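To assess whether ligand presence alters the predicted conformation, the chain was also submitted together with iron/sulfur cluster. Input:
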Amino acid sequence: MRIVPARDGGLARLRLAGGVLSAHAARAVARAARACGSGVIEVTNRANLQLRGIRDDAHATLIGMALDAGLGPSTAGGDDIRNVMLSPLASDDTRALAAQIIDAMQGDCALHALSPKFALQLDAGERLAMLDHPHDLWLSSIDGGARFAFGFAGTMQQRPLGAIHRSDTATFAANVMRRFLALATSEEHRMRDLLARIGTARFLAEFDFDADVQTWRREPADASLRLGAHEGPYRATWYAGAQTPLGRLDANTLDTLADIADTHAEGRLTMTPWQSVLIPGIAAHDAHDVLQRLHALGLATDAREPLARVIACAGSQGCAKSHADTKADAHRLAALLPSHDEGQVHLSGCERSCAAAHPVPVTLYAVAPGRYDFHRDAHAVARNLTIEEAAERLARSHADA
Ligand code: SF4
């Protein structure tokens, strides 16, 4: 496991299989955040966790606590590459297949050379799914799960390249990663980089697959289903979902979430790529009570709440590259936003946009403390605005819409 330096101390990434965290492991994470760091826990846009402010003398303790909680890799060198994204509502079957793929990745030392950003998506057509991330390989089940359509480099909402049988899926995924490593130069870390140079036909030349899926299209997803209380897609239980404020939880909140999962559900939490949390496995008659408990913890449970619509990177408190304290400014902006809108807003401390792995309609790029350039659909429409001016502009564009 790696702990990387950040402005506010060490940053420890804890990868979760399909975003799932047992209540037991959640309490261990909360303990580790208190004992080894600042107590700040972040849900990432890959449905993992990060602990901030890790002290230099606490690295070994933290790693030991994470391994004891079952959150480490199964092989040395296999931690960074465990990037297989699932729907937060994925079935047990899909999770079992993802585990097979992750085992193959971790077990093959050659694959440990992949970039930590190289990522896969395994999908079964769930309505709650993040389809906008540029996954290097995506696989989406078709024919009632008998086959998987596949494609590369964030093209899931376009035409698939082909399909493979379910029983071949883990082997196919491993072979795609091996071929990527065999063909990519040291400058090419993502599939899109390699394909831009050699083309898809050359990459696929050595693969056997079905080509009869050209007309298949993935059903659209609905991100609003991450919030609120809903019946689950595969079982006769409900789930409750809520947004963490700007992707952050404190240790006490995580402990309380673990308690709710134990007393009202099946003892587990699921983190999502929207930096939100779900509690699955709730009896139908308890679902709205659980939702109210999440709201009482300060989590947003409705897509129109400002804190469900604003994302921000670590900002100047946590990152030396940031021109502004994006987290504090995002809280100020959220307090000024109307509660009847649904538009997403992203505050970024610099042009890297770490907080938004998917397109967001409005981005405020920091240019100085408390000042932002206002971008809509990737075009700058105003420069050097204060947070109040940005809020006014957002309100005007909402009124014009
Ligand atoms: S977007 Fe820039 S300022 Fe924000 S965390 Fe990333 S690198 Fe740092």
